[in-house]
């Protein structure tokens, strides 16, 4: 679990690069500077950890590129103690960013291999989400709802209705929508039945899979 001055320097560079690409939320950039992304990757990828690229992490999944993580985090407008539901824990890197931004994070992962490895890694790094769950992201976590914000970290063909139901009024749901390529979509809940929709261009994600049982 080595984290060196060199790694810190690479993180500072990465944060600067993200700022140049339009990430303006200081809390997002500070979190990127602090989190040792190389520890979330297979050691074979360590030399690439601070490039703005996605990489495989096992179970057919990827760790999103830092710009995507930062962009989604910025769209959430995270405030301290915000209760956030994350669909797709994956490597835990996005989880870590939200935790360092002061959020109370509840995260769901459907790949058991990733759920187990991330449940071990995050506490080792001193990062403690409120709740990590192994289960179907399409269903969310109704027992812990409502949430201030919801973030989906995989491409979804539709917006799962249970997630819309678990969002507070005034809350923000950030989800990449689409089959092969996704449009980053923000829904803001206006009242019980109405949502305001905003779109932010194309991104690429692995698909959000639903448990069929």
Description:
With 213 residues, the chain is α/β, with parallel strands linked by helices. Helices cover 29% and strands 26% of the residues. Helix 1 runs antiparallel to helix 2 (26-34). The protein starts with a helix and ends in a 10-residue tail after the last strand.
Query: What percent of residues are in strands?
Result: 25-35%
Read across the widest sheet, the strand sequence of neighbours is 5-4-3-6-7-8-9
Radius of gyration: 16 Å
SSE series: HHEEHEHEHEEHEEE
Task: Indicate the low-confidence ranges by residue numbers.
Answer: none
Query: Which structural class should the secondary elements be placed in?
Result: alpha/beta
**How many runs of DSSP E, i.e. beta strands?**
9
What is the terminal-to-terminal distance?
38 Å
Largest sheet, if any? 7 strands, mixed
Query: Shape, please?
Result: globular
> Helical region count?
6
Helix proportion: 25-40%
How confident is the prediction overall: mean pLDDT? 92
